[in-house]
Amino acid sequence: MDVQIFGVKKSAETRKALRFFAERRTRTHFVDLQERAASRGELVRFTQKFGVHALIDEGSRRYAELGLRTALYGEERWMSILADEPLLLKMPLVRRGNALTIGPAEATWKSWLEA
């Protein structure tokens, strides 16, 4: 079973996800969003399941720096912003096949491993 994890190395939640799967000897593919942004197709996959606003980390420093607190954008505009500014994403984004999670979701990850 391969698990793909999108995040940044300095994110505590991303490190927890990496450690969770490493402790269970699950092969992971880590995509550091500071080195290489997630493709638009990957973001669309998460958006279709959770909605674009579930991907946005409104508490992030980058969100405040860009002055997005009062922004009223449509989904397409948010998608282009998220593609350009990966630090606005809630992390980690985890994918196993068609199963997806946003943020820490250890209960869901455990169910993946048990299946």
For the terminal residues, how far apart are their CA atoms?
10 Å
Order of helices and strands: EHEHHHHEEH
| Helix segment tally | 6
Query: Quick one: overall form?
Result: globular
User: What is the rounded Rg?
Assistant: 14 Å
Q: Count the beta strands.
A: 4
Q: According to CATH, what is the class?
A: Alpha Beta
CATH level-3 fold name: Glutaredoxin
| Largest sheet data | 4 strands, mixed
Please state how the strands of the largest beta sheet are arranged side by side.
2-1-3-4
Give the second-level CATH assignment, the architecture. 3-Layer(aba) Sandwich
Secondary-structure-based class equals: alpha+beta
- Work out the helicity level: 40-55%
Strand residues, percent:
15-25%
User: What low-confidence regions span 5 or more consecutive residues with pLDDT below 50?
Assistant: none
How many structural domains?
1
Name the CATH homologous superfamily. Answer: Glutaredoxin
Average pLDDT metric: 92
